[in-house]
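Researcher: Please predict.
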Amino acid sequence: MRKFVLLIFIAVSVSVKLFGAEFSISGTDAVGTESTIDTIFVVNGTQNGVLHFQMPESHDYNWYKYDIDGTSSLIKSETNVTETSVDLEDEKSIGYKLDISGNKSAWVWVFDYKRYQLLLDTIIVNGEVEDRCSYIQLNINMDVEPMEYDTIGQITMHDEVERLFELSYDSTYYNKGSGYVSEKVTRVIPEISDYTIESPLGDTQYSLTGDQFAKVFEAEPPVMVSELFKAIAIEIHLDATVRIRENATNENERGDPVEPDETKTLLKGSAPLNIEIINNASPAAFFYTWCLSNDREFEDCIIQTTDKDFRYTFKEKATYYLRVQVSNSSVTEDPEIGCTKEATYTIEVLESALDIPNIFTPNGDGKNDEFRVAYKSIIKFNASVYNIWGKLVYQWDDPATGWNGTIGGKPAAEGAYMYIIEATGDDMDDEGNRVMYYKKGTVNLIR
């Protein structure tokens, strides 16, 4: 049975405290940490290395060395000293036991890093796993000799120092202002043959280097690099906009603000309702399918398009459902190979309405300066204004505009004027015909 110990890195001379005392190594670069046997050191060569132990008061000491099987032998004794030390044995791996007067003992294990084989062979990206659209697998081939040590005489139970490696790759993500961008990412992983990682949104290579000791000892660590992996994962960010008629301040329920909104899934307003949805899909996206339907289950499509973005003007009162599917493979290909994301919208086109005021005040105060109708979902419009003698003084065909109270560029006289307005709504009457409006009346001009 193996357990793993993660080392904390300290360069050059290393010291580790133990019940008020201190272990340290000098004469060679080392890293160390406390562990199940008090202390582990990994050194960059044993030559000139010295293992020290120091306590605040004087003690008697007996140094023993022991191997992975727990066999020990006395190597040094000292009496009535506060500090004691032994030269590091010229061994690949060896344990030290220090008996201290007062029935105290400490165990230390030292590994010579230079003698442990580390071979990084290949890293292969496996994109054929079951959930490949979310995760892929890195098949890592490496030969790493284990750093095993004895846990205080437990011959059948050895611990192992964990070897850590740096995995680097390009991570692609969506930025609202810049679109999809990539940046280099490095994560630390243990020695492992199969490593599961998120499926990338952009093409990338994976490189592995290590281990951590090579980095600390400033040795040139081995590196292995995968072939370029072509991204298959799909991500979509949709900016939906209701394009309102900005000058149509007299239009009731004319729609939502112009600013694109990725979170909005209900789009509504009066007809003609101009909808625009910008599709910000990840680089692997290749096929786009939009389905506009009266059925929320999308069994039939009123309109189907393969454009990247969706733009449409709705002229009829109804509730519509819009679905976009984005994929890296054609619908005619095997669906098991491709990755697809989809999003849906509900679009409400409101019923028509037309109201006409009976007074307006074109005095330049910015309030009620024009004779304008209040309308909703009007798709055809024509209005005429006549003076009291029946002479046409103004005519227009855009319900968003109106008469400013002038005739031939000069202010018209105060009083009553007759209007005739004909309009068509986007909705249907009981007989299935467009709702028609015919309005005739008078409006008073007051300055």
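Model: The two ends are 98 Å apart (CA to CA).
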